[in-house]
Amino acid sequence: MEKRHERKFRTEPPSSYEGVLRSCPVEYPPTEAIRAEIDALFTGKRDLVDILEDVARLGARLIIQTAMEAEVDAFLGRARYQRTAATADESGEVTARAGHRNGHCPTTIKTTAGPVTVQRPKLRGTTEKFASRLFGTHVTRTNALESLVIASFVRGLSVRDVEAALADALGLEAALSKSTVSVICTQIRDEFEAWRRRELSEASLDYLFLDASHFKMHDGHAAEPVLAAWGITVEGKPVFVGLDTANSESTDAWHHFLTDLADRGLTSPLLVISDGAKGLISAAEQVFPKALRQRCTIHKLRNVPAKISKDHQDAVRADFWACFNTSDDELKDIEPGQRLVEAVQRRIDAFIAKWTGAYPAAMRIMETDRASLTVYLRFPADHHKRIRHSNFIERTFGETRRRVKVIGRFPGETSCVSLVWAVLGRASRGWRGFAMTPTALRTLHDLRRALLEPPTPLLKMPVEIAAALEEAA
Description:
Blueprint: H1 2-8, H2 17-23, H3 30-43, H4 48-76, E1 100-111, E2 114-124, H5 146-154, H6 159-170, H7 178-196, E3 205-215, E4 224-233, E5 238-245, H8 251-263, E6 271-274, H9 278-287, E7 292-295, H10 297-303, H11 310-323, H12 338-355, H13 360-367, H14 384-387, H15 392-404, H16 413-428, H17 438-451, H18 463-472
Parallel strand pairs: 3-6, 6-7
Antiparallel strand pairs: 1-2, 3-4, 4-5
């Protein structure tokens, strides 16, 4: 009897929840097993950015599991392992019900942090059926705790915020340990500060992508931009270059951002790819005057349909992309370079002529900055579909926005840029590089010499000296 009692109330947490379920699914509280998994993440040698997603998912499991266990406690009128007979208060209301816990069954619930598997408590011997008020009887998707899960993830960058977000809603038992919170808070900020001050002289780029996304980070203010830069090196490898906040996408804001990159050793790329923001374009041309500039074709296409009726939008989109299809019989044999640029520009002329009668305002948008839509055609054909737009990072920005949309805004600027960096940094590890074939390397080498290392021109001989030499001859 004594041994069983000791097993029931052991204090050392297991190394994994799965191990608990195999060995003693009833005796060990699921919430303690999840806490053990969270603590185990920080005792290993994995990089903090790598484990951030796991922290979010385990945090979601901990919150949901704690909430379900609390509901069962309230339903039975007693805590886990507590043996109390059903009694009634002065009003006659029953404070403890008949029945007891009978283990758990795994249930997968979809949350913003991703699908998480929790252990739904099972009851036996009750006089009425238990149904969770948070999740219902069979529900596999929850919005009830969605904002709390995301708030804990975002505010995990602040010790006080994460403790308040969990403890206020679910009690002190739901809060992560202070040591775990401190690890998240301290390490992520230290790593981010070291990252954004690092030397960039070794990051020699062929392509530099620039974009911004807006997030709410100050109370009472509109969403403000987070500026981002990433690129493709001369070896074809993707690299996350820079990230910072700004109060606007003005020329001054982008100029300060790009100048900081250059001051830390970033040399001029061959091609800068961006949307049509005037401040960004102006700053890029000032800081990297020798680089060519590609206007994002996807951003341009988004602007055009705004002036076109819904009945014709699909047809206009199809004609737009047909302009840039260089794999058809007409253009497939033309090598990248000026001839290919001119051929696609003629297609754009035909596209504008076709639609200008019905939608002149839309075609005026198409005319704006049109020369920069075809600059990418001077580069290797294998790279065309990935360097003609800056939409690449928008998908990752979208992932960050998805995480925070339910809480409205970040707790502050530091929280915002730190979390965006963590999400983008983790995503960048999975980005695909560019294939650097011999043909591609030769094309890039020729462009590099023409743009960044032009030969020194010969000095022109004065007319008088030339005449004197001619007479002497």
